[in-house]
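We emphasize that the prediction below concerns an isolated chain of 466 residues; any contacts that depend on oligomerization or on bound cofactors are therefore not represented. The input was used exactly as deposited, without trimming of termini.
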Amino acid sequence: MPDKWEYPWYASWDLAFHMIPFCKIDPEFAKSQLLLFLREWYMAPSGQIPAYEFAFNDVNPPVHAWSVYRVYKLTAPKGQRDQLFLARCFQKLILNFTWWVNRKDPEGKNVFSGGFLGLDNIGVFDRSKPLPTGGHLEQADGTAWMAFFCVVMLDMALELAMHDASYEDMASKFFEHFIMIVDAMNAAGNGEGLWDEEEGFYYDVLRFRDSSQPLRVRSMVGLIPLYACLVLDGENTHQLPGFKKRTEWFLTNRKDLQSRITFMTEEVSSDGKPSRILLAIPTLAQLKCLLKYLLDENEFLSPYGIRSLSKVHQNKPFVMFVDGSEHRVDYVPGESNTYLFGGNSNWRGPIWLCVNYLIIEALERYDYFYGEKLKVECPTGSGNFMRLKDVAKEISRRLVSLFEPDPVTGRRPCHGDNDTYAKDKFWKDLVLFYEYFHAESGRGCGASHQTGWTAVVVNCIERMFA
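Result of the prediction step, given as a token string:
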């Protein structure tokens, strides 16, 4: 838990982010914390990881596997990593993945719902309660989180398979499941996915028996599909004959999936062998659409990082009437203007470092595949084109600037107008790691001692000087 005063309880998805910077201080402690949530006295027999201590049964984004694999890679160089730690976690994470599939995919269509998924008030409705409209909500972020979970498990299985061939079967399982989730998001079997072709964005969709309605709120919900991408090294996959054979069979016999989506792009080296394979939710065309929104300063790109809700909703709030009651989403860059989830949390505009950090990592993976072949305008409309790894550095720079003192006034954006932190010699170097940040001023909001996931700024600093 981040501290014993303001935040004296754990949240499992927060802890996953805590361990990314913490593993640089104490690798063994970081690994033990991640294992703890997978032990019998924390994980339910069904495979569910408890959300937090006052609501075990709530639903947090499935980022535990990602944290396990990142800590595994960050704590030792290649060839010296803790295989036992990875294998122990992998076995229990299979249970957690199965719990998600069984409990959160109501129609078996690989489209996930059922819970607010950690983003509190980001939606039109409280997503942890029954919908006032009837029907059910297919969540773009819930489905994308599961695709992200899937590719991380695939990557882990391939890593373990290099030392134990029995893991090849699990790698094949996660490969196939990922493709089915991507198909469901982009063009489900009934021809209705979560991608809005007209607007070039992913939206939650209300499904009824005979109709459906996209909820066109441009928010982090539609950017989370960026996370679910993985670059497979062709040489490594050729060393795994079982996995290679199974994937080739799947691609040969499931032409229906190949015909609708570009879930796999292969780059061929000069000797004719595949050098890299990209698995991702968005096609290249969809990726470009999403990046155009992401890097637009009138949409998501703030001076201090990526907003959780597009600034376009400042003048064009999303409004929906249900049985005479108004449901609306406004752009609110600072503290929440509603009392949902206690009011001390807001995903309708502010900067949250946790989701920003996952965007940065995803951009680096896309760049590893596309390299010089894909350059985008940053900011959108500026005429300044750059590779995605440089876009990742630019977002990192903006996040780091939250904590940097102004050379003239000494003020750090995160401390707002507080003179004590700007001028007092005993206080000016004491930096508060807030829970989230005002998207326009950079002022810290929410819990002031939420040192946990905000500490990933350390990893952003590393990227700036890499």
